[in-house]
Amino acid sequence: MGGIYGVFVCLTYPGLGKPADAELAQGKLAANLALKYQVRHLIYSSSELAPESKDNPAKMMIEAHVKELGAQHDEFKWTILRPAFFYENFDGLLGSVSECLFESSMDKGTKIQMVGGEDIGRVAGAVFEAGQEYHGATITVCGDCLTSKEVNAVHKKVMGRPLTRIPGFVGSVLRGSSFRSWSRCRAADASQG
């Protein structure tokens, strides 16, 4: 075995409608280099919506590549983390859009799986510390399941002000995006857990 214990791979999402060629190339390269340099454990941070995503197939392709390397090389140990919707998505301009889509795309009272960005690092650290327990596992990382109203209440309590929101008609136009399909499947999963 090589001298590197673990590598945590977290790649920037290029954005809706933007090509993810660089993300795909970086993800595959990171996995290939981990194999080449005999890294003992690779953790790839994907996305909870990866299996259903039509906007960013790169994450699924990277996941498939990591799994394929593991199947072909017994010494290649991996774990895939799939973080849910980030709390941080409600900050700034993106937050105004997220809040509008969240409110207009789901039935009232529907909960959505959410997680804080810092929590992913904590989970990755725990996975590394656990040794072999999570080799070959795909793990959803979710901190809370909240309705739009609950998100707003938490935001107001923590930030001292309600979430900002773009006009509803803009949300209606955007509702056809991946957020709508993602929110339906994530909301259903959240109601079961």
TrEMBL record:
Keywords: NADP. InterPro entries: NAD(P)-bd_dom_sf, NmrA-like, NmrA-like_oxidored. GO terms for cellular component: nucleus. Residues 4-165 form the NmrA-like domain. It comes from the Eukaryota. It holds the Pfam family NmrA. Belongs to the NmrA-type oxidoreductase family. This is NADP-binding protein. It comes from Dacryopinax primogenitus (strain DJM 731) (Brown rot fungus).
